[in-house]
């Protein structure tokens, strides 16, 4: 599943990377769901 998430978030990662904190929180939430 992570492979798919990485692909989808690959583009969003750049935007969230600025906040950094959001990136970690978003991934944790998506992984849990």
Automatic annotation (TrEMBL):
Domain of life, per lineage: Eukaryota
Region of interest (Disordered), ranges: 1-33
Listed Low complexity bias regions: 1-13
Protein name per the record: Uncharacterized protein
Organism per entry: Vitis vinifera (Grape)
Upper taxonomic lineage: Eukaryota, Viridiplantae, Streptophyta, Embryophyta, Tracheophyta
